[in-house]
Amino acid sequence: MKKIWLIFAQTVTVALGVWAVLSVVQPDWLSYRAPVVRAPAVPAPVASAPAVMAGKSPVGYSEAAKAAVPSVVNIYTAQSVRRPGRAINDPLFKHFFGERPGDAPRASSLGSGVIVSEDGYIVTNNHVIEGADQIEVALADGRTAEARVIGTDPDTDLAVIRIEATALPAIRFGDSDRLQVGDVVLAIGNPFGVGQTVTMGIVSALGRSELGINTFENFIQTDAPINPGNSGGGLVDASGTLVGINTAIFSRSGGSLGIGFAIPVSTVRQVMDAIIKDGAVTRGWLGVEVQDVTPELAASFRLPDSAGALIAGVVRGGPADRAGVRPGDVLTAIDGRSVKNASDMLNLTAALPPQKEVQMNFYRNGKLMPLAVMVGKRPKLER
């Protein structure tokens, strides 16, 4: 028995020794792992850009720029400036002292414009050519031509001029109503007079209004760099079609801070067509003073929401007065189109042709009331 116990003890001692050695030298031998079945390898994704696979240049916006750039022009204007003083006609005085007091030197300015028809019509900003008695247009192909003013519309800061030239590259019009925030756009113009320049950005916001820039405001906001000299130039989409006319920037330094504004092409076409046809823009008018409906006012007037325009005043004898509109009414729809706010009401009314009877919806004393209003002609404002 003693011999058997001795053999057992030696066996256990040897086994423990072997286990200790293996745990240091080959620990994997002592651990149990389930067999691993490897999934078949998934090939790495192939670059989706066909231009890269085909060995072409990287995809960009060169095609859009190529389509639109020839249609954007530089505009140079000159204006007579009278200096105070008495005219001196002595040639000797003029020889030594230059221009005599009372002469009319020329003050030049510059901006941009867009060729909108092959027969020479160009759209630009009113403030680019306002007061100018000489306008020169420089085309992208190097040609220059003198332009004449066809008509202006200060209320939207648009103007139409015309040049006499052949083979003019008219731009293709896009649809600004289909723009969405985040869409890529290119701004083309002549910033600071350095020459034609293309910048890229996105649509930052739509329907910007109440900025105090124009009477009628419905701006496209973009972060595409726009600088002085870009005014009147084109804002185009990724396919090179015109979606707006660059008109203003928000800046504390005079340069681009990433907040630029363009007039939508829907407004541009309406104004342009009216100017080319009649030489001026005729707009509808109701003869009311309006303000936005705040949530507090909506609750006070028992309205379902704060959409609409509150009639704050009515011009005596005007179209609204004759139709029975009263101060305190809330206008919610014009000719079947919803009114969002006071600015929206102004734009919708201006687009109506005068002497047209239009159905409008008002809230009065918490109840919806339709009224037929004969639209009037918006009077010219003294400037």
TrEMBL record:
InterPro entries: Chloro_Bact_Ser_Proteases (IPR051201), PDZ (IPR001478), PDZ_sf (IPR036034), Pept_S1C_Do (IPR011782), Peptidase_S1_PA (IPR009003), Peptidase_S1C (IPR001940). Keywords: Hydrolase, Protease, Repeat, Serine protease, Signal. The active site is at H127 (charge relay system), D157 (charge relay system), S231 (charge relay system). Residues 275-343 form the PDZ domain. GO terms for molecular function: serine-type endopeptidase activity. It comes from the Bacteria. SMART domains: PDZ. Pfam families: PDZ_2, Trypsin_2. GO terms for biological process: proteolysis. Substrate binds at H127, D157, G229, N230, S231. Belongs to the peptidase S1C family. PANTHER family: PEPTIDASE S12, PROTEASE DO-LIKE 8, CHLOROPLASTIC. This is Do family serine endopeptidase. It comes from Chitinilyticum piscinae. The lineage of its organism: Bacteria, Pseudomonadati, Pseudomonadota, Betaproteobacteria, Neisseriales.
